[in-house]
Design goal:
Elements lengths: L1 E9 L5 E6 L5 H10 L3 H13 L3 H4 L4 H15 L13 H8 L1
Antiparallel strand pairs: 1-2
Protein name: Phage tail assembly protein
Pfam families: Phage_TAC_7 (PF10109)
Length: 100
Amino acid sequence: MNITLQHPFTNAAGQRIETLTIKRLKRGDLKAAHRHSKEDAEQEDFLFARMTGLLLEDLDLLDIADSKALTDAFRDMVVGGESSASTGSGSADSATDTAL
């Protein structure tokens, strides 16, 4: 699955990021997120980095609209789907709680 960013950005390495390629997460990714931090938001960022191949600091450069699309893709993955990343609602923390 790919997400075309509404607001592309340039990452710390100077690369222009216009799309995100999303890979499905595995149980090992969830375990690694738990080892990374006990904080839900930090676990979510860790998982988003794993999903996209972005560095954690690059995630902070995502526009809020693009961050929502990534959260929606994550939620869809948690429930077993792989539909469009542009649907869904609610807080990002509840998506992590559902997966973890």
